[in-house]
Every structure is written in structure tokens, then in C-alpha cells.
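ESCALATION

Customer reports they have been waiting on this structure for their group meeting. Please prioritize. Original submission:
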Amino acid sequence: MLLKADFHVHTREDPHDFIRYTAGELLEEAARQGFDVLALTCHNKRIHTEELRRRAEGLGILLVPGVEAAIEGKHTLLLDMPYARLKVRTFAHVRALKRDGGLVIAPHPFFPAPKCLNGKLRENLDVFDAIEFSHFYTRSVDFNRKAVEYARRMELPLVGTSDCHRLWQLGTTYTIVEAAAKTIPAVFSAIRAGRVRVVTAPLRPLERLRERGASLLGSAR
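Update from on-call: job pushed to the front of the queue and completed.
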């Protein structure tokens, strides 16, 4: 089956960013847009609850527990993995967690910001299952190009995400996953096997790029 998915979104519950909408409001919008799979990935805080899972399920959405964790100071998406900020701080910690499953994605890895992975991705490539294609680009400014080429050379799948901080961003870039079933194990298996397709278009007008430029390049979210 083909599943519309986004594996990188933020909500008001994020402790690091000012966001206007709640997780519940995001789920409503995702359902309106026909999303089948969604991961809530706030910074250094896993906000997944049984109540949110049931609410998502009622809207036809498979909710994946997630977090955008600071690992050795670099943003890293950890999906369906146990997380505590003080206990998961190094890539060695992530390797140990992966023995019990989960999925690790490199978000905006080559963007020019201190908290983006850059060389840490190369040093810890064995940890990562996929590389992100971020919605944050225009026809003339596109830091995804290096990620696309690197994923091709390293034979890693690309997944498209909105890295949503404002509701209009949801759906600007997403992933179509060809999975055997609408379950977390089946979705992760499909990603690892490369049965994914990025759906995206450059941002326009440029005002939308300016709206987030200071946030992304200043703090790398």
C-alpha cells in the first residue's frame, strides 16, 4: 500500500520553539490533507502519549513516536526509540538503542548551521537509516542538493519532510512510502528497503523563505 507520510514535525509542546498550534490541531490538519503516517518530533522531548495515538488513529493516521534529539550537539531524528535527554547524548548511546529497533534519520544534514550534522553524518553513517530532503529550499537556494548526492553515493534512502513549524508548511514536502501494511515495523522496513518517493516543490514566494531564515540558520531549530 502507498502511504503519505511526514517524519519531522513540531508542535506547541516543543520546549525550544514558539509554535502556535498544538499536536491535536496538527493531527486535524494532517488528516484533512490525507496523511497516513506522522511522526511528532519536538526538540529533546518525546511528546507521544496514548491519548495522542488514539486520537491519530481515529483520524486514520499512524502516529510514530519521535524526537529531534541533540546528539553530540547535532540534530538527529530518533523514531520509535526510548529517549531521555540526559541518557541519550552521544552516537554511542544511539547505537546501543538501535539494538532494540527504531529508525534514525539525518535531518537537514548539510545546511550551514552549527547544529546540523555535516561531518558527524559521515563519521557515524552506520547509525543512520535515511537522509532527509527538507522542504526549506527555493529554486536558487537549495542545501538539499548535497544531501541528495550523498544519499545516492552512500545508497541510503531519501525521505521528504516538512519540518513543520507553521501549519502552511505541512504538505509542502512529504514522503510516499510503499509499505506492506500500515504499521510502524512495515513502514520502517519499507524505508530501509528504499521503497519511498519524495514529493516536493520549491518554496515560493521568497517571503516564506525569509519568514524562517533567521530561525533555521541561526539556531538550526
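Sent to customer with the following note: The CA atoms of residues 151 and 214 lie 27 Å apart.
Escalation resolved.
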